[in-house]
Design a protein that fits this description.
alpha/beta, TIM Barrel, seven-stranded parallel beta sheet
């Protein structure tokens, strides 16, 4: 089993279902949207500081391939990128090959001395074993989607069996999908029991609960689903599968971040956050990190508690870092994932 590279012991044990923690919680949508829209303007990140934040985004990124035509060769190429997300010459130009690139606002003492690698590689269960072999010795864990991704509309025993298969193949993280109907019908006991059973099936692997927020109809439902998933033992809550019509948005992220903050205040348990889908640019990477810093604090600027599910964003980050190091932009095609 590949341990989490940052903090393999941090787990959310969960608590008993407590509807009172969320059932009367109101969400002012206009206020949420106004607050989310103001975040980027509250913190100006430029120059070397911006480069440091973008390097940190790479460290928190889950490189992912979840296509119907995935092959072992494609996964092997993705794993090679995970091991070396930036070209060696660019890494050296940024100072990452030497003392490191540090900047204000980053978790801990900055990036100095930290290895440059992504947070995880995420694949389908049948491709986990090959990814584990390709990443051996790198410190990068393998994550697997499971439970009938992306719809989750399979009998529960089959979904649990898929989790156990992925863990048995070496997955250190499991990204499950919830049954959206439980949220839409407000059947919180059914949702809690489902996620708790999935958490149990994960064993030592961390569970990331995908809420598919674009399907949940309201921010109030997003908040409630977040709290129930955490009460049931989710180690991370994640916005989307990336397959919905609407995926990660800052207002949804704000509601989920505040649910994490309130859950920690009530229980003492710490839960991670992962936005996924709909993010494509370096500016998006900055905006999500600013949200984490403003709402949850510096601890959520590390891969132990924050992941970005947006592989396509890496290319634009590379281009921006190349411009910072050399003063010119490289061609976009040079940074496309294979």
């Amino acid at each position: 089993m590949t341990a989490h590279p940052t903090d393999s012991n941090r787990r959310n044990p969960g608590i008993a279902l407590d509807v009172a923690m969320f059932d009367t919680h109101a969400v002012n949508t206009r206020a949420v949207e106004r607050r989310a829209g103001s975040l980027s303007g509250r913190r100006s990140v430029k120059g070397a500081a911006q480069a440091a934040w973008l390097v940190n985004a790479i460290r928190c990124m889950d490189l992912t391939t979840l296509a119907g035509d995935d092959t072992p060769a494609r996964v092997a190429r993705l794993c090679a990128k995970a091991r070396q997300p930036l070209a060696p010459e660019l890494q050296a130009a940024l100072g990452l090959a030497g003392p490191g690139l540090a900047g204000p606002g980053l978790a801990g003492p900055g990036l100095a001395g930290l290895p440059l690698r992504v947070g995880a590689v995420c694949v389908y269960p049948t491709l986990v074993a090959g990814a584990v072999r390709a990443l051996e010795g790198s410190g990068v864990p393998v994550a697997s989607v499971a439970t009938g991704f992306p719809a989750g509309l399979m009998p529960l025993p089959l979904r649990l069996a898929e989790i156990r298969h992925a863990v048995g193949e070496g997955a250190a993280e499991i990204d499950i999908v919830i049954t959206r109907a439980h949220v839409l019908s407000r059947d919180w006991a059914a949702l809690y029991d489902e996620v708790a059973a999935m958490r149990d099936a994960c064993g030592p692997a961390h569970l990331k609960a995908i809420l598919a927020t674009g399907d949940l109809a309201s921010l109030r439902n997003v908040h409630a689903a977040s709290v129930v998933a955490m009460q049931a033992g989710a180690d991370f809550i994640k916005t989307s599968t990336g397959k919905e019509g609407v995926n990660a948005t800052l207002p949804v992220g704000l509601v989920m971040a505040r649910a994490i903050r309130d859950y920690r205040a009530a229980t003492g348990h710490t839960v991670g956050f992962k936005p996924a889908g709909g993010m494509k640019t370096a500016r998006d990477a900055l905006a999500w990190q600013i949200l984490m810093r403003e709402e949850l604090g510096r601890d959520w600027l590390s891969p132990a508690l924050f992941r970005l599910g947006a592989s396509s964003m890496l290319g634009d980050i590379e281009r921006q870092l190349h411009h910072h190091a050399t003063g010119r932009y490289s061609a976009a095609h040079r940074h496309a994932l294979a």
